[in-house]
């Protein structure tokens, strides 16, 4: 069985090599999730790069723009769980030089959704 590899490079990505490596492998749910995560991450990284070069805050890409894109790409059949909130929090902290988490950030939204889903599962 051939495994695909997906590696992002500065200024582009190596999706073509991954496609060549894995072209005969049937798509599994885990593959779909990995592809979605990579696509959304690439979009957010591109926005962060552009924002670093943009002087005016009103011209910068906002979290709502990325989250709207992510929502349209993610499957609607899986409720947010605590492991999702932990994963998002870990990614945020690993990539934030100040180790801060904004109370209205992505992690807070995922944690709130997970909390609601957990409460609803007990009803």
UniProtKB/TrEMBL annotation:
Report keywords, A-Z: Repeat
| InterPro entries recorded | LEA_SMP, LEA_SMP_dom
Segments carrying the region annotation (Disordered) are: 1-23
Q: Where does this protein have coiled-coil stretches?
A: none
Which intervals hold domain SMP?
Answer: 17-46, 61-119
Show the ranges annotated as biased composition (Polar residues): 1-10
Q: Which Pfam families match?
A: SMP (PF04927)
Highest taxon in the source lineage: Eukaryota
Would the keyword Repeat turn up in this protein's UniProt record?
Answer: yes
So which residues are the signal peptide here? none
Family, similarity comment: Belongs to the LEA type SMP family.
Name recorded for this polypeptide: SMP domain-containing protein
Q: What species does this protein belong to?
A: Manihot esculenta
């Amino acid at each position: 069985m051939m495994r695909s590899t997906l590696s992002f490079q500065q200024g582009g990505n190596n999706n073509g090599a991954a496609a060549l490596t894995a072209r005969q492998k049937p798509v599994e749910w885990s593959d779909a999730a990995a592809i979605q995560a990579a696509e959304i991450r690439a979009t957010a990284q591109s926005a962060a790069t552009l924002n670093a070069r943009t002087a005016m805050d009103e011209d910068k890409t906002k979290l709502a723009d990325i989250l709207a894109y992510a929502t349209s790409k993610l499957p609607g059949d899986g409720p947010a769980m605590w492991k999702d909130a932990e994963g998002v929090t870990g990614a945020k902290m690993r990539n934030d030089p100040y180790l801060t988490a904004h109370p209205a950030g992505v992690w807070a939204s995922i944690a709130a959704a997970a909390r609601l889903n957990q409460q609803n599962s007990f009803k």
